[in-house]
Amino acid sequence: MDGALALGAELDGRIVNITQAGANFEIPAPVDMDDLLQNDRAADVSAIVSRLREDGGIGSVEVHEAAFAPLVTRPRKIICVGFNYQAHAAETGTPIPKAPPIFSKFANGLNHHDGDIELPTMVDKEFDYETELVIVFGRKCKNVSKENALSVVAGYAVGNDFSARGLQNITTQFTARKMSDGFAPLGPWLVTRDRVPEPNNLRLQTWVNGEIRQDGNTSEMIFDCREIIRYVAGIMTIEPCDILFTGTPPGVIWGQKVPRDERQWLKAGDKVVSAIEGLGELAIHLR
User: Fold this and answer.
1) How many C-beta atoms surround the C-beta of residue 27 within 10 A?
2) Which residues form the Fumarylacetoacetase-like C-terminal domain (predicted)?
3) CA-angle at 53, arms to 52 and 56, nearest 5°
4) What is the pLDDT of residues 243-278, one digit of tens each?
């Protein structure tokens, strides 16, 4: 509202501003996704949606008219898993991990559907995509069993674990290659857990300027979503709005079997579209 963040929802193929609708109906409404998840306000959203459907004539906009924001803006943690597909590990010459290799991104990396990434060309020239299934947590938890792991999930989204490969290959650490501004786009939707019966059976794809680059399935993960959640929640307390990137399938530029100086790294002007079955398409523009 007036340029501020708001909680939106897709109803009947159009976008409704839930925050504004709540104000119109004088019903308490979450101001954004963080408010919804961190303060457990699902009942407020349900009440607003019921009122919208009762009244008819829902005030809404077409999807292409909506301005998207990052799904969450105040996560305590952005957790990432590397080399979680055997074919991706193989294409990069990386041994199959014995446990999920964990690293982090930071809130400065949060980006959104149809957003821009300003490439940090003063420190790198080798930029790469990684389409990934992203888990957004909805409950505080620790020491969750594998059997109950999905119960702490709020929903799923498309993510792009954008990477600077030059920074990656000059040290043994992952963080520098992953921490630039805008390097953690996710969206456009948070698809609630009940609408994704099995997160480890979803097709993932990446296009660069309309050319298909990745085409895999989450069933190919080495450590599935349940195991990753169990592992991470055994290390630390998970909180609502925490984000988990679960790894990328093969097809990244870094894995191409040609000399590095002959690879066609991403550059300003490119458009990267990441898609996951049932979760939508996430577009990013490089500047």
Assistant:
1) 15
2) 77-284
3) 85
4) 999 999 999 999 998 988 899 999 999 999 999 999
Place of tokens 């398409």: 281
Cα 244 to chain center, whole Å? Answer: 8
Query: Per the omega criterion (within 30 degrees of 0), is the bond before 30 cis?
Result: no
Beta-bridge mates of residue 85: 221
Pairwise CA distance, residues 287 & 284, whole Å: 10
Residue 245 amino acid letter: F
Closest CA to 160 of 126, 123, 134: 134
d(CA 142, CA 167): 33
Cβ-based neighbour number of residue 205 at 10 Å: 20
For residue 35, give the amino acid letter: D
Within the chain, all domains assigned CATH 3.90.850.10 are found at 78-286
In DSSP notation, 152-182 reads: GEEEEEEEE--EEHHHHHSSS-SHHHH-STT
pLDDT at 3: 67
118-162 pLDDT, tens digit per residue, is 999 999 999 999 999 999 999 999 999 999 999 999 999 999 999
Mean pLDDT of the 81-96 span = 94
Report the chain's C-alpha Rg in angstroms. Answer: 19
- Write down the CATH number for the domain with range 78-286: 3.90.850.10
